[in-house]
Design brief:
The protein is mainly alpha-helical. It has one domain (about 1-254). Helix content is about 80%, strand content about 5%. The chain has helices at about 1-25, 30-35, 35-55, 65-105, 120-135, 140-155, 165-205, 210-230, 235-254; strands spanning about 110-115, 120. The protein has a two-stranded antiparallel ribbon with strand order 1-2. Strand 1 and strand 2 form a beta hairpin. Helix 6 packs parallel to helix 9 (about 235-254) and helix 7 (about 165-205) packs across helix 8. The protein starts with a helix and ends with a helix.
Length: about 250
């Protein structure tokens, strides 16, 4: 009887870790992505051990290897849906940065990220770091941990998502373009007006080269507009972070 109880305990830890793994391995926070995979693995296992002691007894009963595999697949699908909502929120900063870079004329200028082996935009990297800083300043990491615990209340261990839940996860991932365009809108509109002014000058003064004259001016004005618009980023950024938990609720209770 003692062996059966300990086996259920280990099985619960394994199922919880399967749900947490997509979240922690795909979490786009610099403080997490810079950690080695081995450290993130032990971090997931540590959280799983803590959570299994805090969650109420769900009466989990797995009697065969087939049932265990099905339960693991269900937990992994839940973790993928939850990680999609997180990725959508933080990808909004990258989308906004790429839109601003393209409008400023810095679309070809990129930064190499050795952690992900990818090319990141200049302004996108700046906005992502700013969003990460604000996330920790508003105790978003603590809210994220509480939200993870709440997911096991909405969908107990061994439960799965409905088909409509996966649809909500895809819709949440699509919202990153909306949030990114919202963040970049002030700068893009200002640069559009600057393009109009440069076009008028180029039309009235054909000897003026709009590329060599307008590009440095657009870069300077784009940075100035971005600096001035930072004061208005608080509400959109708050909405982006709140969308994580709102999308989690839609995905899990759908």
């Amino acid at each position: 009887m003692l062996f059966q109880a300990s086996l259920d305990f280990v099985t619960s830890i394994l199922l919880i870790a399967t749900r947490l793994a997509p979240i922690f391995f795909a979490l786009p926070l610099q403080a997490v992505t810079s950690l080695p995979l081995r450290v993130r693995f032990f971090l997931v296992m540590a959280f799983s051990v803590v959570l299994v002691t805090l969650l109420p007894d769900t009466g989990l009963n797995i009697g065969s290897s087939y049932e265990l595999v099905i339960a693991l697949l269900k937990e992994f699908s839940v973790g993928l849906a939850l990680s999609a909502a997180i990725m959508a929120a933080f990808s909004a900063f990258s989308v906004a940065g790429r839109l601003i870079d393209f409008q400023m004329g810095l679309g070809a200028a990129t930064l190499f990220n050795p952690l992900s082996n990818s090319q990141n935009s200049l302004i996108g990297t700046l906005l992502t770091l700013m969003g990460t800083l604000i996330f920790f300043l508003v105790d978003g990491h603590l809210a994220l941990i509480r939200g993870i615990k709440q997911t096991f209340v909405l969908v107990p261990i061994g439960g799965g998502l409905k088909t409509i839940g996966f649809l909500e996860a895809f819709l949440a991932a699509g919202k990153m373009f909306l949030y990114g365009a919202t963040l970049a809108a002030p700068v893009i509109l200002g640069l559009f007006l600057i393009d109009f002014v440069i076009a008028v000058f180029a039309r009235t003064m054909p000897q003026l080269n709009p590329y060599f004259v307008g590009l440095p001016f657009k870069i300077f004005m784009g940075l100035m507009l971005l600096t001035l618009s930072l004061n208005y980023f608080s509400n959109p950024i708050r909405a982006i972070f709140e969308s994580i938990f709102g999308n989690w609720t839609k995905v899990l209770v759908a």
